[in-house]
Amino acid sequence: MSHAQTLSPSILSVPLGRAVTFAMAAAAGIAVANIYYNQPMLGVIENAFPSSGAPALIPTATQLGYAFGLVLLVPLGDLLDRRRLIVAQFIALATVLIVSAMAPTAGLLVVASALLGAAATVAQQIVPFAASLATPEQRGRTVGTVMSGLLSGILLSRTLAGFVAAHFGWRQMFWLGVPMALVAAGLMLVVLPRKHPQADIGYGFALKSLFHLWRDEPVLRRATAAQAALFASFTAFWTILALHLQEPAFHMGPDIAGLFGIVGAVGVFAAPLAGRVADRHGPHWAISAGALLTVLAWLIFGLWNGLAGLVVGVIMLDLGVQGALVSHQHVVFALHPQARSRLNTIFMTGMFLGGAIGSAVATWAWHMGGWGAVTILGTVAALLAILVRIGAHSNSVR
């Protein structure tokens, strides 16, 4: 028996109805949306604090906060009643949104953004919970459905935030997030089953087991590395898009940047599709196809100037990254069913650290070389993911 299995609470399979699945998908989308509100609003926030360079740190702080929340909060899903934990995190999320809306300085907004990212990891409590409740034959489809809700939150959050910031101001977007988080808390309280761990595992011991899982599972390491590179490519685009559209060639505001979220929402359809492919044929084909689509998207961004090129590229970027994400999760969740929260912690922490790096380096590349430098960065990150996949395939055939 593996180290992960001896340390993990047992999991009882419970049939997951369609209504509960869609409710979990909606709640996951509401939660994760909070870490992307700032991206189309970044230019407006910078204008609100003209004497400070701190607003440029907001996307990176949010991603880092999310990564730390994944490490410190998500493992609690293997130790506590997930229903109570999810509701408590949504209430904490609403509280931090109030702080963000009232922040008097850019520095405090950066700190609040990090806390917001940590609280928003409630989305990553929901995903492994859904995987635990689903039957093995339906797990890919169930996770794909929940992930489609999560990905809808990522993409449509930009549309909503761009519109609200342009017409009412950026603070009002954070205020709007408060009742949304509270509604999600109430929804999860009503529809989720109680699920108490049957083993008494200490929090410190559970955190220590993260190291053992990472050390003992090369499949987990490769999946995490590949998805981190793809997500770095993904966040590089979305971090800079609003700034790119403000250039004289476009001269567009945050509302237009937000509308690209609707375009990118086409990628949501990749999530359940990739889940079904993984259930029937295995996930590896979908992962490789997703990485190739991401490279092609960046080639379009670099070579096809104008709005049409951005639209086509966004569709391909989101299809590629989201399809690979669901397929990677299918691989990771199959490793140790009784440690899914901790496996998800490792996988998503690596992915969002990649996102934070992509956001930070994209900001630097933008200031150093403009959009051309950003397209090079995104292409290199996607190619790195392909190299990881090639290495994984080489190891599997030895």
From TrEMBL:
SUPFAM superfamilies: MFS general substrate transporter (SSF103473). It comes from the Bacteria. Keywords: Membrane, Transmembrane, Transmembrane helix. The chain crosses the membrane at residues 12-36, 56-74, 86-103, 109-134, 146-168, 174-192, 225-244, 256-275, 282-301, 307-326, 346-366, 372-392. GO terms for molecular function: transmembrane transporter activity. The keyword Glycoprotein does not apply. InterPro entries: MFS, MFS_dom, MFS_trans_sf. Gene3D superfamilies: MFS general substrate transporter like domains (1.20.1250.20). Residues 20-396 form the Major facilitator superfamily (MFS) profile domain. This is MFS transporter. It comes from Nguyenibacter vanlangensis.
